[in-house]
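Hey, resending since the last one bounced:
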Amino acid sequence: MRFVADLHIHSKYSRACSRDCDLEHLTWWARRKGISLVGTGDFTHPAWYDHLTETLVEDAPGLYRLRDDLDREIDRTLPPSLAAAPVRFMLSVEISTIYKRGDRTRKVHHLIYLPDLDAAARFNARLARIGNLGSDGRPILGLDSRDLLEITLECGGYLVPAHVWTPWFAVLGSKSGFDAVDDCYADLASHVFAVETGLSSDPEMNWRVSGLDRYRLVSNSDAHSPPVLGREATVFDTDLDYHSVRAALETGDGFAGTLEFFPEEGKYHVDGHRKCGVRMEPEETLAHRGICPECGKPLTVGVLSRVEELADRPPGARPPGAAGFTSLVPLPEVVSEIVGTGPKSKKVLAEIDKLTAALGPELVILQDVPVDDIAAHSPLLAEAVGRLRRGEVVRDAGYDGEYGVIRVFEPGELERRRSAFALFDYAPPESSTVERPRPVPAPEPVAPAPAPAAVPGASLLDGLDPEQRAAAEVGGGPLLIIAGPGTGKTRTLTHRIADLVTARGVPAAQCLAITFTRRAAEEMAERLAVLAPDAAGELTIATFHSLGVLVLREHGERFGLSASFEVADPERQLAVARSVVADEKEARALVAAGDARYKKALRAQDLVDFDDLIALPLELLEGSPELVAGYRDRWRWVSVDEYQDVDEQQYRLLRLLAPPDGNLTAIGDPDQAIYRFRGADVGFFLRFREDFPGARTVQLTRNYRSSSAVVRGALEVIAPTTLVPGRELRPMADHGDAPIGVHHASSEAAEAGFVARTIEQVLGGASFHAFDSGRVVGDGTQGLGFSDFAVLYRTDRQARALVEALTQSGLPFQKRSHDRLADRPGVARIARDLPRAAGATVLDRVRAAAGADHTAYELLKPLAAECGADFGRFHTALALGVEVDTWDPRADRISLLTLHASKGLEFPVVFVVGCEDGLLPLRWPGQDDPEAVAEERRLLFVGMTRARRHLFLSHAAGRPRSPFLAALKAYEQLGERQPRRRRKGTQLSLL
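The structure tokens again:
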């Protein structure tokens, strides 16, 4: 059976698509066009998937049709020549993946086909864990193309790379693609057997690239509205079912070629710059080295140039066995040219109605109906169709997002024929208004500068800068390292420890390194495993709380604890308290106060709570000089990271572990002391030299993280209340000269919209709509993926507007705070159900226990994977961890973080939203605490110094601008300083 298929379309749930993109309209237009098989499009969207399940019934294996009642209604609106023609649907979706690989941002679109709704449901469940499927019918995922193919194969489907030559979003695109399909899909590339050529190329162009010979070259309309169905399509000569179509694409048997646009009509055929009206052929682009002669910015390199770049055959070459193709102009466009009105005009549609009622579907009229039969209805149309079939057309090529124009008649020709043919009234067509660029002499080539030769290091410390090395080389005794943001704090500390154990004879077992978060401890351990691989296993690297666990495992019997005691999560703490008192409110009060009855009940069940992990070891050591002496002898070299964040109990514990003349290294920055609310006291940092009179002090002032603009702005903000006399921070990295951007939004929602819009602009567009709507006009900053963006805010409540804006834009994100991990919704339930869940590993059981709670599952997934089959470790880490510990730097998503949670992280692009008095600084009614305001200033300093290349500070109307911004001297105002308020309408008087 020979039939036409259009397997790339979109629903009304896709961005910039017609509201008529539903199954009923698609069926109506498919019959009008003469298409037998249509892709459903967008099956990942929850609402569209529901529509598919309610509206379709299975017809042939893997194919669906409309319910009979709906189908009959459509037939009643069509003439007999079109009614009752079979129209079947195949489950399809287009997926946009944006990710980093090989230091480049990759943006690739893919078509996914699945054999049934159950397979689609499984596929959707997998992708729902990765991105937001409800924001757009064509979801945008921070997922490698290879991994998307793997998920597709596991769900029983197949993948076809979409419009493979499109510059911005395609596997071979000039802006963000690859040079070969195999490079994109890596080890799974052999499972790709077809590629979609796109509107701006035809098979003849693709034949020039021998690397595409093994793929079937398919074409589809990529329809965003039903009337454009079939503008490109694929022809099959096989059974009408899913498996036969797939087999035809895999083997070529039954694949009968394609129906094509003339490629010049595609909107990325040649090169150019739409804003300047500049359009160039490939040789002209080469002569100008890809630069627009009008504005000096890079041209958008089109498909023709990209094919020329990758071609290894001359024009006109055709590989053996290649299927043929037919180039057409859609019938409405042909009639539009004749009658002189737009192809969507009522006049054109009325004429098409008459023609299809008399002659059959549009594609049949264009290809098969004898010209004499067409002439009986319209001599001019018969002439046009004859020329079209012979390929005699006038081509005005598209470029840089502007569709080209294909005409059948020469300019003025229709006017001359006016008296001869009068069936259609028409107006003479206007001539093209596209201006060709004036010839500009090609610039002289510039020879590249030779790369500097690398100087290899001779020892472990040779790779450090002079300040870092001075700190790392200090011998015994107390040492205070004041390390500004981005100065290599962890690098310095780990190199110092590694040098002690590898070059200075210090036994690794005598070294204790303490930090504040599990994530920071893991990073330190990973670095030391590289620097001192033979000694790393003997080092003790811990957080304060995991150090407490270690001490209690060894000496917990003094409190009635066994060596296998557990740490109670909040839910279990409450259950223990309720065994003491019946009232829940009173039980919560017992937990909060650490009541003795509650503590006794905990011990009876071999439990401790989070606070016990510091309090009990401290009590133990303060009451036992022998234990203190034992631990001092065991850990003779103690290093403490983020010393500015210690609280009173942690400070006392450290004083017990390290004598006044001991080998204690404290590293941190008092201007980054931001945890006063949980008991931290920066005063302990400031009095270090009083506590340890012989201490040496070293400052690290070279910032390797941020651009000069970011460093300068951060220093200006912190200067009024700095705790580091003569504060100095020197930018060493070349991250460009982009100034700090300051934006004033009219509302919190508008501020969130600014963030989403700016991310797309810096990224260089996340969708075609971003370019077509004018939101994005350039390439953006190359080498960025979604994971390179962070949005920081003071309170968790501020995330709501951001979540909504990013969701509406279809941008993937992950949200993390500094809250206790065990307090997050769903986590306690999963932990409770874990022993009864199926699975051999922690990850298997977490997945089973989570069920439909994808949010909690994604939160716990990194920790669960890390723990393997160690369930005890998982429960302990769960009780000790905070939510930001589960932040996954490998997840290609935008990070939404509280300012506190951002500590220790860095990103190329950072937004700090809510820079308003009342939020930053956060002020409570009646509060007058200068130190609290100074800490809020430090919090902004921390947020600003997370940025490498770009920093945006924003505030919304409703609150005064943050007083901290007054210190900024150099910045770029983005938008109006005070957004105009929309005027209310004025009621007019009748008289």
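The longest strand covers residues 88-101.

Sorry for the duplicate.
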